[in-house]
Amino acid sequence: MSVSIYYTATRKQKLTSSEQALITQLIENYSVDKEIEEYLNTGQGYNWTSFYVYDSKSPTEPDVIFEGSTQLPSNSAEAMFDGVTHWATLLSNIRNVVKGADWHVHVDDHDLTWDEKALEYDITK
Questions:
Q1: Could you read off the pLDDT of 2-24 as tens digits, one per residue?
Q2: Please, which domain of life does this record's source organism belong to (predicted)?
């Protein structure tokens, strides 16, 4: 059984080129491609999947400017928790780049809570 984290941001204004460039850099910085390669080659580590962003030219709803879903590592409870932590941190950073958007981030049917003071998702709630 796979569990995924889903993310959607909506606002009237499309992403600017500078926002898109920062998002691309953040996704690159949080890439787990080396971990995926190691797992495939050795069986060691978590069974990660890459962070996935849907095609922005075909949004699922009007005003959607950023959306996607990523399957969480599932080869242990620790792996899943680390996956949620890792991707929630990336999404927190992306949310802080994309000002004025309404966000919905959830793991299957559990919404992640945004901590306005800390400017990050609080995965403990």
A1: 899 999 999 999 999 999 999 99
A2: Bacteria
Question: pTM score > 0.90 for this model?
Answer: yes
Which two three-digit tokens encode residue 23?
């998002």
Residue 66 class from Cβ within 10 Å (0-12 exposed, 13-18 middle, 19+ buried)?
A: buried
Q: State percent of the chain over pLDDT 70.
A: 99
| Dihedral sign (CA 101, 32, 84, 1) | positive
Q: Would you state the structure tokens that stand for residue 106, as one six-digit string? A: 């959830």
Neighbours of 101 (CB within 10 A): 20
Q: Which CATH number fits domain 4-122: 2.20.28, 3.30.70, 3.40.720, 3.30.870?
A: 3.30.70
